[in-house]
Amino acid sequence: MLMRLEAVDFRYGGGTTALSGIDVSFGAGELVCVAGRNGSGKSTLLRLMSRIIDPTRGTIWFDGEPVSTIDRRMFARSVGYLAQNPTVAFPATALEIVLSGRSAYLARFGWETPADLELAHAALASCDVDRLAGRYLDEMSGGEKKRVFLARVLVGAPRVVLLDEPLAALDFAHVEQLLGLLRRIVVERKCSVIFVSHDLSWSSACADRVLVLDDGKLVGDGPPERVLTVENIEKHFGFKAQRVAGAEGRQWIVPYLP
Fold first, then answer.
1. CB–CB of 213/35 below 8 Å?
2. Could you report the per-residue pLDDT of 105-155, keeping only the tens digit for each?
3. 185: closest CA among 104, 119, 242, 127?
4. Tens of pLDDT, residues 246-258
5. What is the DSSP string of 75-129?
């Protein structure tokens, strides 16, 4: 297994439990959706896996080693993370933002090389934002910003890609494009892409596997057709739904309107 969480709990400083007893593994070559209602622990799960926060109890493993023993610089080369609302503290162009994703590969006080620059342009192009290379962040739409920051994650060539709500603020065409890009990354790089999403329909149609969190507990883990049943959707998401057959064996989820 590439990454594993073993009996992981997380509690905030005030004692509130965000996650409890999480046991889950991720292998290479998987496109995994993490779903659940607001406050179910989805973002907390990704922040734990990216080492932004540490578990209150339990162990997180990467490539057979506890992540707490891995040098943070080396870990950053292997695991890339995109937050829900990424930003930068200073004015920067899209190209500069993406280039910063190569920092884990630079020597201390080192500068980017022509090869880094080439990789940055390729990452921008893969996310369909190469035309924005010289544009500043405050000159972009929400969807454009999201794709620039995704390019920043991808330029580091991580083996695990963690994305918190990457589909938010994207129009349908770019949702389809982004999910196609994530599938291509999984296939070509043999990495694991784990993304949080509230869009059960796209997740059902495109993910290899879905994790469902409810009240901080893992209540579902498996292929979409097994996990996102109409019964489970009503129980864990609170609405009635139906599954609709689409092309190429895909199953779409839509609200049930009698």
1. yes
2. 887 766 788 899 999 999 999 888 999 999 999 899 888 898 899 999 999
3. 127
4. 777 788 998 887 7
5. HHHHEEEE-SS---SS--BHHHHHHGGGGGGSPTT----HHHHHHHHHHHHHTT-
Write down the pTM of the prediction.
Answer: 0.93
- Alpha carbon of 52 to those of 75, 80, 90, 129, 258: distances in Å? 12, 11, 21, 27, 45
Distance, CA of 137 to CA of 29 (rounded, Å) = 32
pLDDT tens-digit profile of 50-79?
999 999 999 999 999 999 999 999 999 999
Residue labelled with tokens 């060539």? 157
| CB atoms near residue 118 (< 10 Å) | 10
- Measured CA to CA, the distance from residue 47 to residue 250 in angstroms comes to 30
Q: How far apart are alpha carbons 210 and 191 in whole angstroms?
A: 17
pLDDT value at residue 13: 85
Ordered alpha helix ranges (H), the chain? 42-49, 72-78, 94-99, 114-126, 142-154, 172-189, 200-206, 224-227, 230-237
Gap between the Cα atoms of 125 and 88, Å rounded: 21
Q: Give 168's pLDDT tier (boundaries 50, 70, 90).
A: confident
In the prediction, which pLDDT does 247 show?
Answer: 77
| Opening angle at CA 203, ends 197 and 209, nearest 5 | 105
The mean pLDDT of the chain is: 92
The contacts of residue 225 (CB under 8 Å, 6+ apart) are: 204, 243, 251
How is residue 203 written in tokens? 């997740």
Residue 151: which of 112, 189, 102, 222 has the closest Cα?
102
